[in-house]
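Researcher: I've been going back and forth with a colleague about how G-protein coupled receptors family 3 profile domain-containing protein might be arranged in three dimensions. Neither of us has a model we trust, so I'd like an independent prediction. The organism is Xenopus tropicalis, in case that matters for your notes. Sequence below.
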Amino acid sequence: PNEQAYRYLVDFRFAIEQINKDPARLPNLTLGYHISDTCGDPRKAVRSVLQILSGTREPVPNYSCVGKRNIAGFIGDLTSETTVPIAQILTLYGYSQISYGATDPSLRDRAAFPYFFRTVQSDEANYFAISKLLSHFGWTWVGIITSDDMSGEEEVHSLAKYLSREGVCIEFTIKTNTVNDNYIKQYESTIYRTSTSVIIISGTASITFVVALTNVISEKTLILSSNWGNNDIVLGYNIIIFNNSLVFVPRYHYDLGTPEMSRFLENLHPSKFPEDKLIDDIFLLFHLCLSKDQNKNILYKYTSLRTLRNCTGQERITDLYYFRGETNSPLVHLAVDIMSQALHDMNMLLIRKSNQHPYKYQIPRAQCSDNCLPGYRKAPKPGAQSCCYLCVLCSEGEISNTTDSVSCIPCPDMEWPNENKTQCFARMEEFLSYSVDVISVFFSFISLLFFLITEVILGIFLNYRDTPIVRANNRSLSFLLLVSIKLSFLSVFLFLGRPVDITCMLRIITFGITFSIAVSSLLAKTIMVCVAFKATKPGSSWRKWLGVKLSNSVVLFCSSIQIIICMTWLAISPPFQELDIHTSPGTIIIQCNEGSAIGFYSVIGYMGLLAAVSFVLAFLARSLPDSFNEAKYITFSMLLFCSVWITMIPAYLSTKGKNTVCVEIFAILTSSAGLLACIFLPKCYIILFRPEINTKSHLLENKY
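Model: Here is an independent structure prediction for G-protein coupled receptors family 3 profile domain-containing protein. You can compare it with whatever you and your colleague have in mind.
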């Protein structure tokens, strides 16, 4: 248990009772309090403050869940680590705070912490005083021992800066662990071998630290930082080792060693205050007295090696060293006293104002121009004096949050002003979202629908794979074409949702490769139609080209070129996620940057080249006998494909953000659906509804 923390609580209670007994301090008012233990944890400190402000066990930020309460202010905390986050929250709500131990230099910034005060000096003042002291005595060669935590790290950094200004050099710096004295003993040899006689002790004060240091630095002159000098319990634990020490201790205009304080401490006994949990805890922890609360006794039994006993009733709180007041400074008492004095002054001011006549003493107005409200800035009037000005609305992307602002402040890149231009907020993010954009759901539905239709057609072709109409049109290429069209429909999902680097790389590349396979299959079909027609002539040399080798070679060769283009694109300058904050004010457009425009247009251009070649060959072969020919369907499908993608290019270049993505998805769905409808729907019609003409004899007679 922390003895000093309990002494602080007793001092706090004594101050509250003193104030409430004084009729002149807060007339007709009673000062109450709510105590929370931060446990030295900033997260617990924030939760405790929000609990007090909300009035509930579970904090509800920005809400008070109980009836009207008059919170006068906050006292605390002891350490800077917990005080800073508390001060940041209370600054937002305008509550005063007085700390009795936080020495962080950043807390003196009145702009950041306008309602924060403290009863101790800043660390910076202490470092300045120590450096001047060393310079005065000519001590230019010193050692530093500090705690191995954030407080110790910050103190050493700031202290070294002030020592350097005075020409003081640091022989060694030892960072010790205040929890385990074994860490301290590792550095005993360093301290024994040092040539300096002056050592500065800084960081977090700890009794464990004191015990371990007793034999190590008994012959050294110690200079203590404010964290140690203000800790009465640690200094008083073993005052002998600090006999040769120097410390700057703040001088207060009073102390607590008064008869009134002595009587107050004598009266603190469980027999007089049986319901007081604070007194009960002090006697249990430090006098080892059994509590009336059996839960406390059981908890202590399992958490401590010491045994509780039945006390005689003669024990007194003043029997404990740290409650005698010999080394105690009024840090907490002074904080409460200052807070109550401020409340007193405010009450007196309100009383005086209520007795004044509101119009008799009204201050006259003497301004050339009205005040510029937040969101505006002052601009000089042409030909007028400096006190005459115009109020100009802040420019786009800028704010002003003070009255009569001379200039506006630009918002960070990822933020944008509110409507009144008084505060910056996070920009809205724009991308093709499933949850916000209905068109994303529509595209998903259409893509899945076409995928299922393609799956059904593939099933029909597999089921009727031995029928003449399927075999006559190179069924292996038909199967490959159907699979590639399915993948093209599924590639739409890479364009939906929040873009990331991996989806940006896969978008066009996945569609480009799958569609190149599809168009290569159509090209192979067209070539096979031409070869088959020429091979029908007697003695034709084209017969040796008949077979699957030619069609497979065409598909493999044409697709490989597209794969090489895509891999080169990825290797040199791949697509990536881009945050566009310039196109639309107040909005971050999350989109994919192609990385290399040459790579993007090479993929699209190669698909166009394949489609054009297929279109020309199919157009030339359209008049061949129907028994071998599906060239007219290929001609129409390639005409549709080229029309869609030629139209897509100017639309793609003229749109931004998610509209660009919609153009790409529309082009993919339309071109893929065109291939599916033109090539396979006529055949499915014959297979399902005209089976009588799906025979070899009808094919040879050119009847379909």
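Researcher: What would you highlight for our discussion?
Model: I'd start with this: The first helix runs from residue 3 to 21. After that, consider the following. The chain has four domains: 1-120+332-357, 123-247, 376-426, 438-700.
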